[in-house]
Amino acid sequence: MWQQDALRRFAIRQAFSAEDESEVVSILKAEHGVSQPKAADAQPLETKHLPEGRGSEGPVQLASVGNVVNANRLAKGQVLRFAINGLTTVYGDNGSGKSGYVRILKHVCRTREADSVLPDVFKPGGAAIPTAEIRYRLSPTEAEVTAETWTSGQEFAATLSQLSVFDSRIASISLDKENELAFVPFGLDVLDKLGELCGRLKETLTRERSAITKRIAENRLGFGDDPDITAALGKITAKTTDNSLKEVFSWCDADARRLTEVSLLLNDPINQAKLLRARKARCDAALSRVKAATLALGEAAEVQLKTKVADLTTAREAVRLSSISSFAEEPLRGVGSEPWAVMYEAARAFSLQLAYPDREFPATQPGDHCVLCQQPLDDEARKRLDRFEAFVKADVETRAKVAKAALAQALTSVDAALVSLVPLTEEVANADPADSAWWTELLTVAECLITRAKALKVAVEDGGWSNLPATTAFNPDMAAEWPAGLEAQALVHDGALAPAKRSELAKEQAILKVRNAFSEKKAAVAALRDLLVEESTYDKCLRAVAPNAITSKRREMDEAHVQGALQAKLTEELQALRLSSIPINLGFKVAKAKSRHQVQLDGLVAAARVKEVVSEGEYRALALACFLAQVRQQSDTAGIIVDDPVSSLDHDRRELVAERLVREAKNRQVIVFTHDLVFFFMLREAAAQFQTPFEGRSLYRGAEGFGTVDLLEPWKAKSLGQRLDTLEKVEIKKLEELRDKGAAEYEAYVRSFCDRLRESWERLIEEGVFNETVVRFNPAVKTLRLDEVDVSDEVADHVYWGMTKISNWTAHDPANAKGLVMPTPEELKKHIADIRECETKIKASRKAASARRKQRREPPKAVVL
Fold this sequence. Notes:
The protein folds into 4 domains: 59-163 and 638-716, Rossmann fold (3-Layer(aba) Sandwich), CATH 3.40.50; 174-188 and 562-636, no CATH class; 281-479, no CATH class; 718-856. It is 56% helix and 9% strand. The strands form 3 sheets. Strands 6-11-12-3-13-14 form a 6-stranded mixed sheet, with helices on both faces. Strands 2-1-4-5 form a 4-stranded antiparallel sheet, covered by helices on one side. The longest helix has 33 residues, at 189-221. It is α/β, with parallel strands linked by helices.
């Protein structure tokens, strides 16, 4: 099925994309069981996918391509019409937009080597999708003309795939690996493409299979080089079942723990012991702080704080009562209170340190000043200070100070415990992961202690002893078991230094590793089996893309349907284009599913490329001959589109090509695009010679953009009458529109108009005066037409003055002194009438000259008596 799907894509695609190749390979893999995401849906090749041949009614006829939007900057609103019979020749200079129309037609006709049709890449706002309207008739007997819209990226009606397109890229000609010019007849090249696809798929599949093989090797390396393991792995194949994989060795948690222990004992025991003891030291230090904090914040500490608070309260009350009795007569109340005591002690410090450093406090001698208000002390003030000092030194005040200091000392223990617990949070974060559970439990105890310490301090201030949190249920002996275990492990590592012990441990480690390898690698063993299965599916795919069957079928089809008939038609085409003198023959080869019918040079004694031996014109002619032979092999009447068939041919062969295409146009619709004006004339003349219907078109870059269509022949090919009609019916109207828009634009168009007037005068001389005896772009000299050639003085003067007037406005650098004013459209109409008047005189003169010369070719009439 994958081959059928690939052939379908080759038949309908203009290019086999990377996405196509990816989808085809996914179908191939799905057919052979390769694991992958969802494969693309396979569609077999059917008749509807193939380019349609003509039915009994006749071939499809292309009528026009037009209304192009967003394609190669082609002008909008243009319609390029084609004659449905005979020859249509479309002329366009380089840069006229001709190639844009050809690209569209290549897509419409499903040419597999079609160039991309780009949107206007200079247009701002993003690239829109190119579209065009295609009109065609299904057959010559069909009355209705079908109009469909072509959209870039979407398949167009298969009907127009009957038409064949020739240009420099899609002539079905290429150079093969032996540097021989080769071509593949239409239709059979899909088998070649299938063979090429098989080659690419083989490379892709081989590359992917190699990656799987590498993964298999890496998988095996993951088990080490133990011979028992290697032997067990060798029994795993693509046919190994899931039940077989369940027999992998057992393994338990105890085994895993023991393997870890043994590995640590063997891995630098000295350093391991040092690390264990460092962990123990950190645990011991933290535990010591928590134990101390537990004692400092326990129930005994709580009782002690309560007692000291009570003592301080009692002492302060005694001080208060004493001060009331001692200082009742003082002018201010509060003497002896706590704030007063603070002020008094501050006054003492000021007096001893600064005011009276050499005197005892209070300084109450005559002349001394109060250290608070700094006023001289009178007798009453001195006595008052002495009473204050006596009060402060009294026993009741001393006891109050002692009680306060005792409470402060007790609170210092609480603060110290609180400070010692705060760093535990950071220590827990930095602890060894193996100790994290122990540290977490210790931190929980510490947090409870911190809460209690803060509550004790609050209770001292507000007396809320009933709100205290309970003491923590902490067992320091149990907490000490973990650090003790770390020390025990360190001792084991110390013992692992003994050689005998290390040897014993190494053997145990090896045994455990072997057992663990199979248990831990159950997934790896299953993966190994799956990789082997996938490798086998790739082997099936590689056998499927082998080119042998395609090569055999290709050779069979070539021998049955191609060689004889195609050779005969190619010989006829070579004779028609006078290539018979070149020693060439049609070779045949099929190798690796790839077929080529080669145009080979006979008699070569040295290796040479065909293009290096034949001329460029001959090389191009060979391409055209192969194309025409192929078209005739495919169909006798289906139309063809030819783009620049003589872009590099010599003059003589251009005539042969023109004649050949004109002859072909008698049997089928032929559309020729060319930028060679000489070739355009040759085609028109050959059409007249062989009485083949002919239509001329021209494309140019106009104000509307590239590809502006003129449904008449190009200006240089127009007859005098056609030129004058164009000037009168088209150009004059444009001048009238421009007259009011601006002098500069009007003047430029007038000069262009006058150039065409001058060229019309020249065409009058060629066509009228010399009766086309000698014509530009035509090498023939038609001497018999001299019978009507007659140049009178009147005609000569008429031409002279007409050309002189026009030259005033067409000169490259006209004399400024003349002060010329641009002619109006009405004045230019008179110049057109002037040419017509001169033409009338010439025709009359030619008629008279022809009669005279005819008479001169008859013998004078004899006189008979």
